[in-house]
């Protein structure tokens, strides 16, 4: 029995080692750096304004353009710093809450342990009834195991917050990277955390009779209405429900971000119960290369049914490769490579729009993501019933033109796809398509 109490104390000690004040300091450091970045931006802007009055011609305009780019970069850096400050505050609050709960559980365990020790001490001195003592001992053990389970849940909940917010911080560039102060978790560790959490999610469902019934009938909408289950699924798998649109989407920190994209993934459709139309079905992919950097980009489109026919929707994925080798693997687009997508899934015959994902799931307010996914849990809708249209916004007209040219090439080579592409504005750089395969 002492092993259970020892475990409770060990877990409580583990949580208490964290220092919310340190996280507060990091948040303040981010905002201090943000102010310095804004000051630098203001200085650059004032210099640019003064120089603009006297600089003319190609060289002058190029220099002014470089200063303008520098100013925009400072804006992005300031936004990263503010986002990181907020992430540190989220972790700070989660740690403070975990420490409070851990302290309470440890105090309860200490009271229970003292009570148990006193009971057996009295029995050793001839006081009390052995049958009653054994009954109380069993009750105390059950209570101790419940305390341990509750404390383990406290630790896992905090770890989920730490993982989600830590990934956001460590994906930032520039000064934010240094302020993060720790290395990115590797894929094996992510996988271990996910596998470790599955029993916890199952336990939450098992405790609730309504959720057990929902699981038995495949009613995922009902399951996701439980805030604790929904939060854990979002923290570890990235999926969340968009109530206003009645569809599921994914966050940028999802496990799919680490898996990237490989040609063989499409061959796993049947394993996950998907029946999809997708581009690159015959090995011809929509890919283009940046002539300046040599970086290769791939755009992937999907639409159809999921969950063995219990759901339907579509996806727009954007991936990158350094262009070296021919492994077929692409990383999920990050930073400036990410795209802003407004995806619409509709019925080809009636024209009815089922739902629109205008960038839900993306971090921050820029709506930029590597993956625009929207899935609704509704059976009986098939790939051939669906059309997908979308507007894609990219970082500059050059990238937009290369994407447009490649999509046009693909559409011409595959008329059976019924893919129509339209070039949009330059400010911001956009294109639109309608896909009716």
Automatic annotation (TrEMBL):
Domain named DUF4474: residues: 232-410
InterPro entries in the cross-refs: DUF4474 (IPR029322), ESAT-6-like_sf (IPR036689), PPE_sf (IPR038332)
Residue spans of biased composition, Basic and acidic residues class: 414-426
Region spans: Disordered: 414-437
Organism superkingdom: Bacteria
Gene3D superfamilies associated with the record: PPE superfamily (1.20.1260.20)
Protein name, as recorded: DUF4474 domain-containing protein
Source species: Amycolatopsis saalfeldensis
